[in-house]
Amino acid sequence: MRLFPSLQFNPGVFLNSTLPPVREISNVVMDQPYQIVSAEKITDMGNMWGQFLIHNMAFSKPDPNYPMPIPVPKCDAYFDPRCTGNMTMPYFRTGFTKVSCTKTTSTRQSDGFCYEQINTMSSYIDANPVYGTTKDTADLLRSFDKGKMIVDHGPNGDMPPRGISGVTIDNDARRYPTDQLFSVGERRGNENPGLTSIHVVLLREHNRLADKFGRLNPQWDDEAIFQQTRSCIIEQVQKISYEEYLTTILGEFPQYTGYDENTDVSVSTEFTTAAFRFGHSEVGPNIEMVNRDGSFGKPLSIRDAYFNPTALDNGIENVVRGLIYKQEANVDIYIISELRNFLFGKPGQGGMDLGSRNLMRNRDHGMPSYNQMRRYMGLPAVNTWADISSDIEVQERLRFAYHGDIELVDAYVGGLAEDHMYKAAVGQTFYHLILDQFVRTRKGDRFWYELPEIRKVNEQCESTSFSKLIRRNTNDIGPLPKNVFLLASDSNPLEN
Ligand code: HEM
To answer: How many domains does one find in the chain?
Structure first.
């Protein structure tokens, strides 16, 4: 779904050639000078939950029939060190489909239709990273015994099974054979071990609850136990997302006002392509490993963490503690080199730049410019670089990258550059796009956990916080703050 009119979208030749090349912007604007930690004291678990949540809601599946390589500037330090001037990074346009034209679709094409990018995920928060988006995937992951999911019983606790035929699992880094990766409900679930550890916790919670429901309701068959348990896991994912995660990212979140059948829950392209990619700037260079006594062990570089299942060989506990004890990177224009130069491999050996890809996706999806987006949103347009950010370094980088023309600034870059809203981790433009999405996601969901009829269905579910859910499904995890998305403090005390 598109909230605002797009730039012209013409399959094949759409790129606004007046815009500076994406890798140039990435180099000038996003190059991380040094580590800057989250101003709101958000932990790495904050960005991992964000990634898990977005994997539930969005996948702009690249179409191999539409390659559109990203040009690399001559003598780029990472991607053209020999100054050949003819290097590119692979990029495939998002798959698109014909739609009837409306005010907000792309421009009418000669065949009379408009074209829009396809989001292949569910718009509802339905815990599909655990169960898949189709019955076929769910069936492959179910044991069909007492409502439980298939797990491998290991010395350090139950883990997802590996190599289940028919379950699509991405393996972009190709460092380990795909059949060694975990078969979970979402193809990107092995992208890093922090993300995978969330899958593990929810999978264990499913089987723990299924055991409990089976004991309490001996007359229930496998299907009844499975469906009830799945409903509780969906409730937990919705509740954690709204009561703990979104309140941390946005400062606060409006109260639920009930279901509205006229609310369109579709995920907006402005949200997935620009606003919610704010998370790429929160990622730090390492996954920390924290021992039971609170001491920090040898960290795992994000470069070595991509699609690396071995990081969980000794259990998930050290990784989970690391995510909760470490302050994440601040949301700003900067993206770590691990994501900007070493995405899934070394430059020249599969490595890519996530910053460039985000910008390319913005342009591929016909995002309006930053200033145009603000106008469409009813926000005041910016006139000077200082209107975007109070940080002089940020102002200078933007001015230089966009050759002094503020109207050229891409929506993704301008949104990241803004000063944060009061108590929020993002600036005004992203704040409103994220708020719009999650208000609609909740309002248009007739299975939302706060609806009285769903509360009744779920009355046997356990009310929970993410901290308690983690504790129940890990081994001797030790003290955790009440809200694991924020560092422990006087107002967020550690609990045992
Ligand atoms: C190590 C951490 C992460 C890695 C390696 C990663 C990697 C990626 C990659 C490769 C893409 C596809 C880029 C493209 O071609 O368009 C992507 C998309 C995306 N990521 Fe991340 N990501 C990470 C963390 C996060 C976090 C923390 C968030 C948000 C809190 C996030 C939000 C998104 C969103 C919204 C998309 C677009 C989804 C779609 O429409 O397909 N990511 N990410």
So the answer is: 1
d(CA 471, CA 324): 12
Is 51 touching ligand 1 by the criterion CB < 6 Å?
Answer: yes
Closest ligand 1 atom number to CA of residue 275? 35
Between β-strands 70-71 and 494-495, what pairing exists: parallel, antiparallel or unpaired? unpaired
Q: For residue 429, tell me if it sits in a domain.
A: yes
On whether residue 148 sits in a domain, the answer given is yes
Query: What's the pLDDT at 13?
Result: 44
pLDDT in the model for residue 12: 44
Q: Which two tokens stand for residue 383?
A: 């006139």
- Which residue type sits at 213? F
pLDDT for the residue 114: 82
Structure tokens at 454: 């769903």
The CB of 277 under 6 Å from ligand 1? The reply is: yes
Residue among 280, 308, 431 to mutate when testing ligand 1 (max atoms within 8 A of CB):
280
- Report yes or no on 17 lying in a domain: no
Instruction: Measure the CA–CA gap between 344 and 336, rounded to whole angstroms.
Output: 13
**Which regions of the chain are under pLDDT 70?**
8-17, 107
- Confidence at residue 481, expressed as pLDDT on a 0 to 100 scale: 97
Quote the pTM value. Answer: 0.96
Q: Is residue 199 flagged as an active site residue? A: no
Distance 272 CA to ligand 1 centre (A): 9
